[in-house]
Automatic annotation (TrEMBL), chains A, B, C, D, E, F:
<dbReference type="InterPro" id="IPR015942">
    <property type="entry name" value="Asp/Glu/hydantoin_racemase"/>
</dbReference>
<dbReference type="Pfam" id="PF01177">
    <property type="entry name" value="Asp_Glu_race"/>
</dbReference>
<dbReference type="InterPro" id="IPR052186">
    <property type="entry name" value="Hydantoin_racemase-like"/>
</dbReference>
<dbReference type="InterPro" id="IPR053714">
    <property type="entry name" value="Iso_Racemase_Enz_sf"/>
</dbReference>
<comment type="similarity">
    <text>Belongs to the HyuE racemase family.</text>
</comment>
<protein>
    <submittedName>
        <fullName>Aspartate/glutamate racemase family protein</fullName>
    </submittedName>
</protein>
């Protein structure tokens, strides 16, 4: 089974980290292919960048040269999953949703801890649309940007650990979903500080995608995610 | 005051019809400028096309050469309004939301009647995100495509009138929002058939936008719709 | 166009301040007429007073001698709007709802900051009934009475500014609706302290009412707000 | 124990029927006193009439000459209960709420069957405000007016039985609340036709009120229903 | 009238205290019979113990030798009420629900204050299922176990008073439901400290049960709570 | 990896069918062990039987002699999952929830089609508690009992196919969860009749459980599902 894991930003090192994380949860025999969009922001931290990423991921996936069995959209709180579902016949799994649905098997309430405060409403909105918000205790932000996770990891970890503690102590979360990826040690430290299970969206998405493929299930095509009707679409596929 | 009214599809005749409709609700002294995206589908009827339109509208608005006081995104149930809000300092009004908030002043419950069935969930989702869904009695579809409104108007009108009647009789709607534009006679016929007020999203959006400008109000920049951070964005603005 | 702006209390100086505020948002050609009820409390701060005001406003509006195109009920969180809608053929706009629907175009979440704590549940209930509550971050009170806004304005402003800051910092409001009127400087100070857009309900209601009139829209009469059936009503209109 | 049961309309024969019904559920030692407002509509079928009744009931109760232990507001879906709670120190029970809270002990979902269609949204709104709506399967109307229950009882009963059957068969109600009073045989016929428990709001309210009095409980005065502040209230109490 | 009041744990002294409390709210002529399950935990503080109690209460009630008119399940936030409703023809009243529906007649919002933190989600879930959660301001825990209420009453009272104060001051509760029973002085102290009405679930349940019996109402048998179909049930009734 | 799949009824042939179904979705290396409770009903169709099953499953699992990595509770809409979570350190997956969370990856709305009408509210309640209800279009029943699926399979299939069609056509479901197991051909026929993906709860649960185990995740023990406190529990473990 081959699963494409699409980064939503254009930073190739992030794609590598995400793919690495995905591989750590994959079954033997599952091939993980990391996909980096050819346009868009080097980190996705808001609606404009996320909308651009939505199209960039569709561009990258539909121009992927090869077979694949499922697609993971590996951005937290990002737009675009519904578009991929229309364009593809294989299952599409969003990591925000995979983390939430996984967390709901582990505790009564879960929280999401992410980086920038401005992305909190995007995550809240995606969870609301997905209908996975009623057991969400809170979405909290560390206040650090996506790329600072790489540039000053120690401070980033500290800030995320602090917010995770607040989520457990004040918001009564029993599980933490980490809304930012690519740091092996982060998970361990949050777990040590809070004593609750930590869910990584990318890994959760791999298990969801594998499960769907194994059951022979894919996106329903009867209504919302039907293949787009044949029509004139100017400029698509993008020619640059 | 100058208001840009952005069509979400690439059909110029639709832009003209939308702009015409906008002008019919504008105050003296308000200039309405219709904007047609330079790429995207000739009609927007699903998530892929809507996401592409979201970017195409941002592309068109940000490359508009001139001053303007507000922007109306004139697509029913479409993605993208949040991105425009980040990129601009002037108010942005989505017609789905303008129609709903206007209808809520006129009756206890309202319904939306649109064209294709597959767009119903998109409209429902946008209303849910906007927090304007709790008094929505139903979103109903005539089963006809956007362009069929132009090619076979009589049948289109008939189908929409029939659904509007159902909305009033079965779903207890007291107001109908027409989720498709550009047809003067449609409004009259639905009104005659149902006896309830008919809200046109484009016209409603013009009055909302004018009101915001007159009060000197624009998008809050403290969190969700803050201007994007300076960063590397590959391929944007689009160079084709 | 003539719009009646009904104060809900019997303090004429409040009516003047409200009308003044309304005029500052009105288009050229719109005449604003302030209406003071002939009975009721000199300030409305609870359910009994609000129910009495509901009837007093209906009494005042239905005995107004002249034509008018719309009515604004200028009380925050008050009862009565639905009754006016039944009795009149022109649009009726409640300022609590106008402020909320306007704020929702400006930010992801809004808060209302009002005077007395005991009126908070009234405002929450009106927003819930109006279906405009899901994006309301909080309704906060300064703890001061309506008339203290006039008698000790400095302290009143300070208390309201403090609560507005809390709304933005703790409740993540991106817009503030001021649930108390008649103070020009209040708005400036709250804006300066928080950096978010400030919505005044009276001004917002004027733009909503004008918009409805301009579009030729008024209250649906098919169900909830149908004209009352002919029947024996003892004591009405009030003869004192 | 003395309980005042306030009719919301000015038809004395309705007051008698309501008081009779109340007595049939009262404990030995409980005195039921029927109260007819001195102004208002002879039947309450909409917002204007209901707001007027709200004030008329407050007028009647506060001018009642004697002691009492609780008040029942005996109108279905009417305004005003919150005002009475502020003005009085004894418990106030609304029959819409008493019927609903009682029905919820008897089945998984309940429906309300009432008279005029235009009162359905009022009942829905009162249940929503009361937080008793989530197990309400439907509010249905027979299409007949309140007074027709008296003038053509046979047809009225038939229409209400028909709607009750629909509530059970289509909406999956397991209990029916009759949103209209004064007809002994109605209850029997609806029960025979549906096989489900039938709740009469007036009787339910008597048991709730008695229970509160017996437990020594009354309205909380710390916030929403605090006694009105001392202030100038023009024209109240009404002098006619 | 005879009402069985079933303790959910196997501590007989608790049963006595509960029955005593029930008697204090019962009408003359109502006989209260305390029931202690013959198996299960000596205190119920979690899901396993609560599920076991659910079956133990069904075992105890169905093997009760004598007539009875109603059953009260006297455990806060416990499982099982729906099963009793299927097995019996008389009304079944859960104290969590009786406390909540009673509190809703007394204030705009109520809070529940209970013992162990781990039972908070159980109470929240029961209120959600019962549809009585929308006016619940909070469920708070003192952090003490059920039996510590008996062993160190002073400290227990202090901790519960402290949480009740928080509920009123921070969560804006206007009524407190005590989610733990058997302590006469507790109620007085919480009332003195907060100034709000205190609802005891057992007493509230007695008045609800008496009311239902007096009105001749019992559980609807048309669907959810229909008598179990005849079938082979191994091991039931329990033979030990 | 060894997964225990617990049937909720005492019919061993059902356990075999469930285990067979589970095996069809298991990865190589996963051992599925079917568990039949030693007491309880031969089919679970209501609250009493479900509560009894809850305890019977806990009895069976805790007395299982051997190691295991996860438990699946294979009853649709049944009580008990929370109790197992407290008693065990390995993940517990309920098939109602697994089916729903899986369906939500495949379409905008899903429906559940089950057997007896009386179990519909149980399923609705479990989905509400799980927070997986907001995208549930409907829960529909074929009107046939669990064991009739075995005794008259043809008629059972027909009835379930008919309800599935209604779910898609009327309720706008895009995915069907089959709330009854053990029939290979059922799935094919429903799929052929509706054209939408069909989710089997048991198979979905296997993929969820395997995923959790693979990620090293298990139930959070910090609050709701903490191991029961040491205390006196009379009669447990059951000695018969």
């Amino acid at each position: 089974m081959r699963i494409l894991v699409a980064n939503v930003n254009t930073t190739a090192s992030m794609t590598d980290a995400i793919a690495e994380s995905a591989r750590s949860a994959a079954s033997p025999g599952t091939e993980i292919v990391g996909i980096t969009p050819r346009f868009g922001a080097d980190s996705c931290e808001g609606n404009f960048e996320s909308y651009l990423a939505a199209i960039a991921v569709m561009d990258a996936i539909t121009s992927y040269d090869g077979e694949f069995d499922a697609v993971i959209q590996a951005g937290y709180g990002e737009h675009g999953r519904e578009g991929l579902q229309e364009l593809l016949d294989v299952p599409v799994v969003d990591i925000t949703e995979a983390a939430a649905s996984t967390a709901m098997y582990l505790g009564h309430k879960y929280s999401v801890v992410t980086t920038l405060d401005r992305t909190v409403p995007l995550i809240e909105d995606r969870l609301k649309l997905a209908g996975l918000d009623s057991r969400c205790a809170s979405v909290r932000a560390s206040g650090l940007g996506v790329l600072e996770l790489e540039s000053d990891p120690e401070r980033a970890v500290e800030a995320i650990v602090a917010q995770s503690r607040e989520a457990v102590d004040r918001d009564h979360a029993e599980v933490i979903c980490l809304g930012c990826g690519g740091m092996a040690e982060l998970e361990d430290k949050v777990k040590a500080a809070t004593g609750v299970p930590i869910v990584d969206g990318v890994r959760a998405a791999v298990t969801v995608a594998e499960g769907l493929v194994r059951m022979g299930l894919s996106t329903s095509k009867v209504r919302t995610y039907a293949t787009p009707r044949q029509k004139k679409v100017i400029g698509w596929p993008f020619q640059f």
